[in-house]
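Request:
You are asked to prepare a plain-text protein record giving the amino acid sequence and the backbone structure tokens, at your earliest convenience.
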Amino acid sequence: MMKILKVYNNNIVSADKEGSEVIIVGSGIGFKKKPGDLIDKNKVDKIYTFESRQQSQLKQLLDRVPLLYFRISEAIASKASEKLQVQLSNQILISLSDHICYAVERKRKGISVPNLMLNEIRSLYKQEFKIGLWAIKFIQVNTGIALDENEAGYIAMHIVNAMVGSDTEYTQISKILRFIKDVQRIVEEFYSIEFNEQDLNHARFITHLKFLGQHIFSKESGHNEIKVDDLFSFLTKRNDRILECVNEISAMVEHDYNYVLQESEKVYLMIHIIKIIS
């Protein structure tokens, strides 16, 4: 038995479920209802649980953003979860609803906001960007407003954000993208090569850099070093220039991102780079 705590509109209410506040979405679930009324289970479409901080944000959102944008965000999040086979943080429903609402308003006013990381997003987060392209078509069908690829990129970043963690900010994702680009540039210039984005080894390298970037920019103070002395020695003997390349990357990371790569992290970089240049 769930009791209504607050009615946001005809289709969204908050309710008490076993002592915790949840958000319930369903057609007509809040129609002519008031706090204290029982929830009609037959009208329940989805139940969302949010952290206390998120609940406050959601309440503010629902007070000023039309329900349409929340339902659009639901559909996009569902599409992303299905296509990427991942579970997304419910935070995306808040941040994406807010973003889409303002993006549509800006478009109606003729205001364009360029996405400075669009090329990197398109290249490094291909699947998320494809979902972003699907999303802007879905938004057009439901609002009549045609958003451009800049917004597809922003939506892709929201999806990445929801996968990395609910506390990850756009600024951190942007840093990760820049970090990947910086490392790629050093390797390409050092070996006078151009990465083949269709190559599996390149894809594995990018995935590794994403996780390394997430660690570098996380709030964690550190991690346990893995002993790789023998492997380090083996790799540097196998390729006499690899150490010079990785040391150049390490110097850049320390100077630009204030992080000192440990020996194990250098070894993993060596492994991926050797596969690419071999």
Remarks:
- The longest helix spans residues 170-191.
- The domain at 67-164 is CATH 1.10.1790.10 (PTS-regulatory domain, PRD).
- The chain has three domains: 3-49, 67-164, 180-277.
